[in-house]
What we know:
Elements: H1 3-25, E1 27-31, E2 37-45, E3 50-62, E4 65-75, H2 96-105, E5 115-120, H3 122-130, H4 132-147, E6 152-158, H5 161-175, E7 181-182, E8 188-189, E9 197-201, E10 205-212, E11 219-223, E12 226-236, H6 240-255, E13 260-263, E14 271-275, H7 276-279, E15 299-304, H8 308-320, E16 342-346, H9 348-356, H10 362-371, H11 374-380, H12 385-388, H13 391-402, E17 407-408, H14 414-418, H15 427-435, E18 446-450, H16 452-494
Parallel strand pairs: 2-5, 5-6, 9-16, 13-15, 16-17
Antiparallel strand pairs: 1-18, 2-3, 3-4, 7-8, 9-10, 10-12, 11-12, 14-15
Helix pairs in contact: 1-16, 3-4, 5-15, 8-13, 9-13, 10-13
Amino acid sequence: MSWRELLPPWLVIVAGLTGIVLLCVSTKDVPIAPLRTKYGIVVDAGPSRTILFIYQWTTTKANKTGVIKECSSCTVQGPEILNYSDSPQKVGKILDTCLNWAQSKIPAEQHSQTPLYLGATTSIRQLNLSHPTLSDDLLAALTVALKSSPFDFQRVQILSSPDEEAFNWVAVNYILENFFKYDWRGQMVPSGNGMAGVLSIGGASTQLTSKVEGNQEGVRLQLYGQTHTVYTHHCPCHGTDQLRSRLLSMLIQEQGSAKTVPNPCWPLSYFQEVQWNSVHKGPCTVSDDTLDIPNPDQVFNITGTSNPSACMRLVQRLLNSSSSCSFLNNFPKSAAKPLQTRFLVISEAMEFLRETTSSPELGQAVNKLCEMSVKELVKETQTSLDALADYCIVSAFIFHLSTKGYVFDFNQSVQDAFQTGDTSSVWTLGYLLNLTNDITQDSPSFLKGIDPGVWSLLLILFVVLLTGSFMRISYRVMVKENSFSNRNSSVFDDN
């Protein structure tokens, strides 16, 4: 057998084997249908209002944790849920409007597959401590109301303070893309960023939350294939309401018998009539034994003077005398190393400060805010004047922390990042992200696909394969024709 006869079969064999190898090694799973969108609902039963959030994500997860894309919200009209503790049977009706709104936002065929959660925070947490029976009745009524909705009701629960702050931390770092980020191809890759901390200023207390290393105390979370331990240091008596009460109590005592008391932290021309008993009650108040204590019913006229330097000194004195908040001086060594962490501040005062002052330096921005008059403050926002009046005190408190070595991200807006208009509900995003670990992921259908370069190579190989086969057939035909001609010639010669 000549080489002309052997070449085409070997060519076919080599081309076929190469094609098989390329098909096996270079194939990809390509989904045959677009990724389905899933929805989740979280109701925030907060201290000032109740908000229903709808979150959505695709069925694909990143290391077992969901990637939430969008959010929309509905604020429940009426008083906060706590006000229904004496008549819990009425609480379900206030949720109807937002639940109907959620039904219109989520496709009907997915209502029964949409998990529904309610988390109760500060006010109901306090009610549970003081009147557990009232708290249980209120949560039972909420459970009945939510179970009657078409959604997949999961649970009603009271979040502990450490859990709430841990979920705040998750949400902040998720929005900042500290868990992962998208590269230029739109694919998820490790971010390489360190985790940010969170300073959350509430009404009664302030919380400082950051990640800790090793087997230390804190809330453990499994997110995007990694384990994080988050520690929250609770600082009672340093929320907005308590800072205001303690500061007014100090001013009134120092003024002695005067009925009109100037307040350098309030805006010029702003005033309130304040009863002594309203600012000097509860565990956070401290009396100076060297000064006269007013009668409980005595009323004082507190007037703002817009004096930033005097306000700074006053707030510093107030905080230097604090014994309930150790991180004002030294953070517990066993808990975390916050001085190595950059903190994002969850506070309406910080959002206002960032939006209304052009100074990039925190101290200068606080001075400008504390110099504003009532007219200048109300011109910038629709927030109530009583709330605006306390922004100087809170901002001065944040600045005081910055002098202790804490680093705050003054340029990053929590409100802009979350686009919810209410920074007190940031925890709902972190709460649902953590729960997506347990939400079943759909099993998509795939087809086998190959890269364009491999497809081109296979095309060339199969062209060679067909060409070789054609050459083989042509050669065999030619051989037979020549053999037939030679046989005929031989017959004629014999004749």
